[in-house]
């Protein structure tokens, strides 16, 4: 696991936190034009400072800004690259019980990184307020594969893409470089812990989803290979002291989910070949499958078990959590495992259906359970 001052920490978070009401109001006022960008940023700064203080008080060693500056966990990042614009589409993402806002990202020129990228500016502030604290600031960004999936989402996006890129190989070069440049800029700003959030693999685990789209097993393997190529192009030739991880998600929007299925369909590709040090995996209910796919994780790599759900306020039984960790250790050594929530608490501005107090009780459960399991 990532070490904190030569000590292994076995409890963790995925990254996003419920937005305080003041942030919701500020974003609404900013979008209406009644609050200036400077005033909006000041409120974000203040709330991030408060959040970091709460993370430290909870005993967390790896802290985030809660993604308080984002509206979406992924689209804000895409919009901030040169050559990609915000767009409205006919249909939002379809979750099990709800449809999301109808926003997307569309190619409008050759893609590249710029130094005013929102994620770089966000991390620079997080680093500034944590550099003298006894914590490590973590930056999460959506994966390149996720960006590719968005740019080919629907006929309008495809048409726009083909105006600038004749084939996927050309796109792979530019998008890979844009991401690689972003990651190096984050590193130069002090980032030593970077996580790629990625729903692409989480969608591929659901056979019913891809069968409805007319795909077969061979098609799915080709898509996996493409996603892997986009991710690994961005992750090549990075500093050795940058800890890289990825979170594989099946959808997290207003406490709803988008896909179901175990990791068997993607395990050999994602676990065996992606150039990361650790995998944050969802195992909070039967929809997530069993632990057997963990046998595909190479020796020495880490898995953070998302056993505590962030989708509902009910607290899991710590004895049951300990038993499930023990079960997972049949496939991966206990020292290579950690515990976290299955996802963040607010992958989008809407957030999941629980209170801030319930959110912190979930985190306390993770910390307390992990300390007991790994000290026994």
TrEMBL record:
This is Methionine synthase II (Cobalamin-independent). Signal peptide: none annotated. PANTHER family: METHIONINE SYNTHASE. Gene3D superfamilies: 3.20.20.210. It comes from the Bacteria. GO terms for molecular function: 5-methyltetrahydropteroyltriglutamate-homocysteine S-methyltransferase activity; zinc ion binding. Residues 240-350 form the Cobalamin-independent methionine synthase MetE C-terminal/archaeal domain. One of its GO terms (biological process) is methionine biosynthetic process. It comes from Convivina intestini.
């Amino acid at each position: 696991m990532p070490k904190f001052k030569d000590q292994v920490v076995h409890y963790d978070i995925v990254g996003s936190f419920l937005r305080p009401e003041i942030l919701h109001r500020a974003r609404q006022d900013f979008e209406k034009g009644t609050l200036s960008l400077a005033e909006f940023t000041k409120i974000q700064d203040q709330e991030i400072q408060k959040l970091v203080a709460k993370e430290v008080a909870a005993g967390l060693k790896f802290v985030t800004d809660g993604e308080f500056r984002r509206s979406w966990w992924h689209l804000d990042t895409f919009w901030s690259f040169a050559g990609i614009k915000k767009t409205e589409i006919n249909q939002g993402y379809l979750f099990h019980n709800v449809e999301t806002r109808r926003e997307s990202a569309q190619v409008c020129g050759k893609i590249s990184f710029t130094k005013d990228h929102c994620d770089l500016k966000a991390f620079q502030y997080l680093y500034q307020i944590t550099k003298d604290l006894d914590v490590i600031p973590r930056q999460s960004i959506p994966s390149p594969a996720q960006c590719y999936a968005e740019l080919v989402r629907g006929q309008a996006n495809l048409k726009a893409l083909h105006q600038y890129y004749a084939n996927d190989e050309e796109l792979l070069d530019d998008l890979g470089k844009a991401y690689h440049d972003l990651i190096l800029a984050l590193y130069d700003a002090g980032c030593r812990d970077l996580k790629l959030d990625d729903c692409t693999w989480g969608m591929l685990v659901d056979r019913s989803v891809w069968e409805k789209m007319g795909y077969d097993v061979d098609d799915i393997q080709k898509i996996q290979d493409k996603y892997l190529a986009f991710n690994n192009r961005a992750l090549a030739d990075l500093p050795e002291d940058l800890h890289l991880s990825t979170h594989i998600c099946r959808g997290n929007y207003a406490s709803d989910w988008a896909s179901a299925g175990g990791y068997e369909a993607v395990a050999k590709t994602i676990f065996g070949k992606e150039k990361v040090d650790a995998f944050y995996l969802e195992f909070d209910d039967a929809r997530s499958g069993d632990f057997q796919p963990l046998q595909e994780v190479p020796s020495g790599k880490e898995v953070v078990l998302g056993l505590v759900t962030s989708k509902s306020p009910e607290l899991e039984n710590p004895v049951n959590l300990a038993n499930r960790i023990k079960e997972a250790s049949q496939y991966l050594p206990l020292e290579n495992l950690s515990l976290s929530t299955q996802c963040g608490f607010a992958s989008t501005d809407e957030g999941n259906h629980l209170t801030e107090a319930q959110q912190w009780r979930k985190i306390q459960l993770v910390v307390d359970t992990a300390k007991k399991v790994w000290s026994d």
